[in-house]
Write a structure and sequence with these properties.
The strands form five sheets. The protein has an eight-stranded parallel sheet with strand order 1-2-3-6-7-8-10-11. The protein is globular. The chain is about 35% helix and about 15% strand. By secondary structure, it is of the alpha/beta class.
């Protein structure tokens, strides 16, 4: 009977309908979560300051988790295990589950992977790995076995194969080694067999772009992972490959808002094309397994290539539009989207506070919901909840006209 219930549950999930939550958390698996619209996903970092030396506390993380639960987020992606933040996150989830048995939050646990000499003054050796990698994987295994009710996915590396990550990228054979290691541990019952193993990387690294990535080790890796976790960032390509970014000749008579909306639809379609390019390559080598989005996002501010002096891509309206468009498309297609990211973090570019890397969150470091969440504030979704002990308010004091003063229309003219 239990087997029959499990089969029925999988059929319901595949139909993208609501599922029963009567199962205990140990029985909830990655296969049930990924692609299920009832389990919305997001990338999470709880750092409040411009350094990772100061770790977010369990109490601070509990605040964050309650806010994310309020907007129907139930799956978080982390990036490494060598900071206290991850263990505090797991403790915070455990505590909230004890306080409320209905509380659900699951983790895609990242294990950071580097090449030899990464982040040093020595030349990076990309086909050899850092000694630290083995320690990272070992800790990921330990945490997964300690928290099987929470950790449902292990991701080996973050943008660890893409070659523009020149300071640390590794060749695919290194990722393959660790993916195979984790899959072997599952076979030996040294990891929960239902845990899914992947690597989370740029679409090009998964074969969706240049043929230089189409190496035998990548083919083996695609066959070894339980699913593909791919990254796509059209925001960056408003500068680096702006083939979609601008206003078409026949759109010149539209209002400024309509012009921007049309540009954002093209940004979404650019993302869809990158997703489909990965699926196409995967199928070309005789593989057919799930492909989900491990990262995508749109910063709300930048003083670099993407700001007012550059492609004019970053502001709160465009970031809100991209978020909504991505959720609509991925929900419709049954694709999980680990949106980047939940909260602003300014340690990422501490030398440049206005840099885009510091402004990808849905909520900023002033405890203000950005435009994308203004409706949630109006509906009282965050009522009684706080961050850093303060209630969640709106950016721009909720003045939409003031917000629009910072929204600029792309100036490039695209031919029809």
């Amino acid at each position: 009977m239990k087997k029959l219930i499990y089969i029925v549950l999988l059929v319901v999930i595949s139909c993208n309908q609501k599922i029963t939550t009567n199962l205990v958390p140990n029985e909830i698996t990655a296969q049930m979560i990924l692609g299920n619209t009832n389990y919305q996903a997001i990338c999470y970092g709880g750092y409040r300051t411009n350094t990772r030396e100061k770790q977010p506390t369990i109490a601070e993380i509990k605040e964050d988790l309650k806010l994310l639960e309020a907007i129907n987020i139930k799956v978080l992606r982390t990036y490494n295990v060598h900071f206290e933040e991850v263990s505090n996150l797991l403790k915070a989830i455990t505590a909230l589950k004890k306080e409320d048995p209905k509380f659900e939050m699951y983790i895609m646990l990242g294990a950071w992977i580097d090449c030899k000499n990464a982040w040093t003054e020595l030349p990076s050796i990309h086909n050899e790995e850092s000694e630290r990698n083995a320690i990272e994987i070992e800790e990921a295994v330990r945490l997964t076995n300690q928290y099987p009710d929470i950790i449902k996915i292990i991701a080996v590396g973050n943008e660890a194969m893409v070659k523009w990550a020149a300071s640390y990228y590794v060749t695919p054979n290194i990722i393959l080694k660790w993916v195979n290691h984790l899959q072997d541990l599952k076979k030996q019952n040294k990891l929960p067999q239902s845990v899914w193993i992947t690597s989370s990387d740029n679409f090009a690294s998964w074969g969706g772009s240049d043929a230089e990535y189409h190496v035998e080790e990548l083919k083996q890796l695609i066959k070894a992972v339980d699913y593909i976790s791919m990254h796509t960032y059209p925001m960056h390509d408003t500068h680096y490959n702006p083939v979609f970014w601008g206003i078409k000749e026949d759109e010149q008579q539209l209002s400024e808002k309509e012009k921007i909306d049309a540009a954002m639809l093209r940004a979404r379609d650019y993302t869809i094309n990158q997703y489909e390019s990965v699926v196409k390559y995967m199928k070309s080598i005789g593989v057919n397994k799930p492909v989900h989005i491990g990262e995508t996002g749109w910063a709300s501010q930048s003083n670099e290539h993407y700001g007012i002096e550059g492609s004019k891509a970053t502001d709160e309206y465009k970031s809100a539009q991209f978020y909504k468009l991505m959720r609509e498309w991925t929900n419709k297609k049954g694709i999980s989207c680990f949106y980047f990211e939940a909260f602003d973090e300014n340690w990422k570019d501490k030398a440049n506070p206005s840099g885009s890397e510091n402004h990808f969150g849905l909520i900023n470091l002033k405890n203000e919901a950005k435009y994308v969440l203004w409706d949630a504030v109006d509906k009282g979704v965050f009522k009684g909840l706080t961050r850093n002990g303060k209630p969640i308010t709106k950016t721009y004091n909720g003045d939409e006209k003031a917000m629009w003063m910072d929204v600029k229309t792309p100036t490039a003219i695209l031919k029809n």
